[in-house]
## 1
Amino acid sequence: MRVFVTGGTGLIGSAVVAELLGNGHTVLALARSDASAQAAEAAGAEALRGGLADLDVLRAGAAQADGVIHLAFANDFSSPEALANAVAEETAALETLGQALVGTAHPFVVASGTPAAPGRVSTEADPLITDGPVGGRGRAVKAVLALAAREVRSSAVRLPRTVHNEGEGGFAGILTAIARQTGLSGYPGDGTQRWPAVHALDAAVLFRLALEQAPAGTAWHAVDDEGDQVRDIAAVIGRRLGLPVESVPAETYGPLGALFSSDQPSSSAYTRQTLGWEPKHPSLLEDLENLRP
């Protein structure tokens, strides 16, 4: 299958591209810079120059492919306005890609987030988050899944709060970056809230399985660790960086403060049983041992 991939040179995307190429697919990767194009081509993909805001380029990429995997996101959490702009850009991109695929029966796999289910572990049957600072992403993904009624084999791979590789990435990566900046490995509240996690190489396998097998309109959970307590995550970060570990105000994390403070464990039991996905790489706490001071 020839697959158009957005975000193909990021931490998750590079793993997805390698997984696709290693399993007989070819890849057309969206590349917003010369450096990204070179990285995509070095990995064995063909590069298509453009960014998420280049809607004509997205249409062209989808038209040249037998399927689409969408991973790109601006990841600008510096302010509520920056986050809102990133969500709006992604929403327009998803609408454009979806419309280009209507009537083709081609697979369209989008990255989403695992939902929170107060008082219990969330499952694939729980609805997407459609309110709060990242609620717009949930609404955009719901619209993609609704394209199942228009002959698009759309599916969502719901990613946990931390997708990691060599100790980097996701919410844990944000904690690490702030720890390096401030000299303190912090966590919001009492730190007993739980975050799910998965290794990027395991997540990449699920994106491929969804591309190849997922029925239209379905959601899947790329979860290995159902929920690590945030204070345990911060403790490993602090030990690896040689920094003190303390509770800090939720405001430390800007527009993500409320999300960082919530308990969000998640299960992938249905995904494993149905698609045969089985994570094989290190857990988050094990992988954080790769952090360098």
## 2
Amino acid sequence: MLFAPYERLQYARSPLVEVICQLRFPTILSIGANEPAAFQEAVRKDFPRYAARQEQVPPKVVKKGNATALEPQKPITNYHFVSEDGRWKLNLTQNFIALSTLSYQRWEDFAARLDQPLAQFIQIYQPAFFERLGLRYVNAISRQRLGLEDQLWDDLIRDHYVGILGQPDVEETEITKCSLDVETPLVGGYRMKVHAGPGLIGGGKTDKEVKFILDSDFSAAGQLTADSVPAKLEDMHRFALCLFRGAITDELHQAMGPTPLSE
């Protein structure tokens, strides 16, 4: 089963490199028109570093008669609020608010970090509703870090995620590219995008080790009320937990140092 239930665990050597939660809402022009001073004051204790950057939006596809054309869009301002250690970041634009971290430990800690900024955002800007909730987990499994350099990927990752690398007559070092990319709806009105396969973090600019990337992005869309957000994020967290545990072998599971985690 793709989402078979598993016991909640915490890994001593977790492969998570980033976790991102994004909430999109109908455009609020005042966010881009004025610096978000009130919001900064509300979150400044936990996110004292601030920066604002102009970002180009992809062109919009529009119909002109029987033809289509690309219509340039105005740049938007992306406001960054960063923790003192640089490991946690809030992003705010006229279309979304997002929390990301490079130091994920457990879901309850992440949810608590999101709760106060989100509550302040809702109080200050009063979005009509949320159009999309997204929760993304990016894992990069390092054989070197785990002392598993002598193992092949098909010893550590289950067959349905390694593709041709699971075949006994395939030489792993000779394969230049092998990945799985899936987009599918899930029960309950959710959607999932998954990318899985060997790859280099940051294009290999600073880290040359090939790692196994398991990047899962879960989302819900519609006219979503603020009250519905916690339960939907909890559902997506459980999808992510079950997906990851079902993707790895017992050998990799044990190598990462699992410890039972109470609810």
